[in-house]
TrEMBL record:
Transmembrane regions: 6-22, 133-156, 162-180, 187-206, 249-269, 278-301, 321-343, 364-389, 409-435, 478-497, 503-521, 533-553, 573-596
Name of the molecule in the record: Carbon starvation protein A
Entry keyword annotation includes Cell membrane: yes
CC terms in the record's Gene Ontology section: plasma membrane
Lineage: Archaea, Methanobacteriati, Methanobacteriota, Stenosarchaea group, Halobacteria
Location within or outside the cell: Cell membrane
Organism: Natrinema ejinorense
Domain CstA N-terminal intervals: 4-383, 399-544
Amino acid sequence: MTQVIWIIAAVLVTFTAGYVGYSRYLTRFVELDEEAETPAHKYEDGQEYVPSKKPVLLGHHYSSIAGGAPIVGPITAGAIWGWVPALLWIALGNPLMGAVHDFVSLSGSLRHEGKSIGYMIGEYVGESGKNMLLWFAFLTIMLVVAVFALVVAIVFHAYPQVVTASTIYILLALVFGVYLYQFNGPFIPGTIVFVVGVFAAVWVGLQYPLALFAGDYPAGTIVLLSGDGSVMPGAAALEAVGGGNTAGWIPFVLVYAAIASALPVWVLLQPRDYLSSFLLYTGVGGATVAIVVGTFLGTSSEPLVIDSTIGAFEGFWGVEAAGYAPLFPLLFITIACGTISGFHSLVSSGTTAKQLDNETDARLIGYGGMLGEGLLAAVALSTLAVWGAPDVAGGIGAALPNFASGGGIILTSFGIPQTVGAVFMALVLCSFLLTSTDTAVRLGRYMMEEIVGTPAGRTDTGLNLDPRSIARGRYTNPIVQIVPAYLLVVSGQWVVLWQLFGGANQLLAALALLTATVWLANWDDNKQLVSTGVPMAIMVTITVLGLLILVFYENLYLNLLQGEAGSLEAMISSGVQMVLGLVLVGLALALVRLGYNNIQTVRRSPDRPAAEPGDD
């Protein structure tokens, strides 16, 4: 039987070649200058623009971009179409498309005062293009917040030990932020002490698990509230993934995200992401090394080979249980963040660009950070291979336990008990998700600040009666985001939410690559546009086709014409999905047209100055 180590070996080879060769070329191509003043220094305000040490910012960036999608996507895709197609898309697509996407989004933002990709596109195609992209990004952010809050709640229910551990490491991060920025404590000794504290939190979580409502939990779990939580909004709809307990954790996660997004970055975001990065590096790196050790020394509890339930290639249409699932284009949308993700462009051009201390740090943080997420996707695919195929129709609820259970088997290579390893991998997953959730809320505020207008380096509390101030306010904008996100999750259509998130996210990646291509074309008519233009064209094609399948086949044909929707609520949901899908496609094609026209004009008239925002 095929050994799992070949999955890891394949991505390490292509990722190493990409970082050593292609990223160095891209660094010269966009002319990064270590002597240039970055937005973090130019607009330093102690709130959003804060120059950060490279390892601290790498920890924040990696923690923010890596969420549940690079775990759910590869596991689901591998189960439907086989592990070989999934592996090839991760190993080749990540260094040639995803890492390029993240790198140019970060580099472009550096040259545009730390502004978002929406602002960047507005510089060249006009105010209408800017607003279209910003609204598209803001709506996508709300889907991201809803999906990530849901997934965190599912993990909290499945592994109550993670609730305790996550709470402790957030408290440790708050103390670490004060230690570093208020008391100027020594960096390395502080890192050692607080990192040890984070790993100690895992042990505390194992001893004192926490749950909101009664359920089937490990012995010794502390249940905080009486009853089974059936009175919670959305409990019935979420019955398959935890019911009342899961529904109860969702508002906790959303309120946490709102509060965390309003705090200055040095209070929680930077120190927490830096500390959790050690947990994440240990989880991803430890699982990678464990596969090598277990393979060559045979120390794992089970042979690290690809389970017989996982085919190398299940055919173009995939396994029968998945229904109508053509490999092209659905494989590429399903894997999503493991290879390329539009959400990363918002992180790169949002929080990260405002904290970059040196332009040349963008190579490691932008390009290298995405390779790290690709390695996470490869580890997720490996957990599927070891544990066996989940229920492909189970979506999130089937994929997440697979990651923890398969990861627990892999970590037995180090002599770690499988139950302990599974909890640790669940905590790793939750660390990714928590950081991504509150970063997403913060990014949503940045989007709205640019939509309604806010001078660079200035923030607004929103605590007045001015509608524009409320919309962009540090304390009020998070409410604008988390309330709709909560309603989306508890509406009973949480499975649909994942599909909409995937389509919007991948389409946003295409638009971010379009933005980079337009920027490069306007910068210098001698700049080649292949590195960003070809991935952009591929992603537009894949995503538009995928959304059209969702709109016309799954919803119009199956749900409405064939009557599979079943209920009035499901029919309404299908109608909403169709409208949203067509709106996403229409916005994307309109922006592609604007971008293409701008590139054509610039290339025909090289001396023409770039358009200013509003020149439409």
